[in-house]
Amino acid sequence: MLHTQMEDLRQTAGEETSSPDSPRSHVLFQQRVAAVSCPALSAARLTLPGVMDAEGRVDESRLRMHIFKNGGVCPSERGLVWRFLFGMYPCSSTALERSLLQEQMAVRYRLMKRKWQQFLPSAVQMHLNGTDAELVAAVRYFEQRQTQVQQQIQDQSEGVSDRLAFLELQAQILFERVTFDQEELQEATRIIDKDVPRTNRELSYYQGEGSGNLLVLRDILITYAAFHPEVSYAQGMNDLCSRFLEVLDSEVDTFWSFSCYMEKFSKDFRADGLHRKIELEAALLKELDPQLYSHLVTDSMESFTFCHRWLLLGFQREFEHSDALRLFEILSCDHLELISQQVDRARYQERLARKCRPEDNSNSELPAINTDFTFELFICAAILLENRESLLLCRDDVQLIQFTSSLQGTLDLNSTLKKAEHHLYNYCKSCAWDYMYGCCRADKGKEEDFLYQLRSLLVLK
């Protein structure tokens, strides 16, 4: 069961962030600027049982189920897992194929970055006012890293250089027709330059020489904005992308993983997408607690807008940092989506069974599970319901925001997951109950069998 596995992972994470005198904390203190690429990881193996075959292919369904049931993965495997989880590495790829793919992605990213830098040379360097000593030092560390990268390129063997030159020619053909809107790119860069320094610099990843990672983050965000003008840049993307950079510790890998993530979730950074998510949260709470729902949608409160940051950034500030990373994994494994597939199979089997029972003339169908109710909405609902009494005392939007802001860093992930899982179970049960209750009223044994199967379906052992 998901929440019963969390303590082991918390202890493992604790080993990764131990006391200042520990070897690990010394490594953190000696943090360096992220690598450009991590080609060695393409051949690395996952130790999760039954997830990777001999040639390096990953069973995506098992990977996602493992993440959900075990409350995330160990920090030592997180970097490799995220490369599969977020789509940078196709789960169907072999280790050999990933080695070639890694080179291709590195070359393409380098060309994309160079293209916008040539188009907008004034944006190559972040403009500093000189009052932020940490940022001044960050620029210096970043430039030192750039010099080392150039030296590594010059030291490449002739065979490697020829292969990369061919990949660059392919990339040039791919991107030759890409054009930029100067005004839009300048505006995106301006906002990025304001937001990047606001990224949480208290994280060990941005301490010491690691402060140069702020400049790496900046280049990733500008490159993304330049080549995705339909999305460009919106406030909050820096915090989201920072998660990927911290875990993957690679500029190229972060760009492609972040880009894959944004293919699915970029709509959340648009007003219509976020409003849709807030509406879904309201609809879910209406089913779980009609009284609390009615209170939160009164005229004096703006319906659920106080959940904006929670849903946009995946509860990044509400939980302790290592817990927030694990929660991001859990939310990204789309477990409710997997459950809905199992429910569809169960519904199909039930239809087959009815065809074999001529006396059953019922035409009713099992109610469909709303897969728009993602697990993050159940997490949000669990937080709201846990603080129900305090929320009922709030009389306006200002009080709501003040209260929800007071929750930052105070929530317990184990407890929240347990409650969210319970609400998920109850929701799925209610979707199936009306039909099954009608079929099972005359047969108590069948009713008990249904409850047992539903419990097994939701992996609530």
From TrEMBL:
<feature type="region of interest" description="Disordered">
    <location>
        <begin position="1"/>
        <end position="24"/>
    </location>
</feature>
<keyword id="KW-0343">GTPase activation</keyword>
<dbReference type="GO" id="GO:0005096">
    <property type="term" value="F:GTPase activator activity"/>
</dbReference>
<dbReference type="InterPro" id="IPR035969">
    <property type="entry name" value="Rab-GAP_TBC_sf"/>
</dbReference>
<feature type="compositionally biased region" description="Basic and acidic residues">
    <location>
        <begin position="1"/>
        <end position="10"/>
    </location>
</feature>
<protein>
    <recommendedName>
        <fullName>Rab-GAP TBC domain-containing protein</fullName>
    </recommendedName>
</protein>
<feature type="domain" description="Rab-GAP TBC">
    <location>
        <begin position="72"/>
        <end position="335"/>
    </location>
</feature>
<dbReference type="InterPro" id="IPR000195">
    <property type="entry name" value="Rab-GAP-TBC_dom"/>
</dbReference>
<dbReference type="Pfam" id="PF00566">
    <property type="entry name" value="RabGAP-TBC"/>
</dbReference>
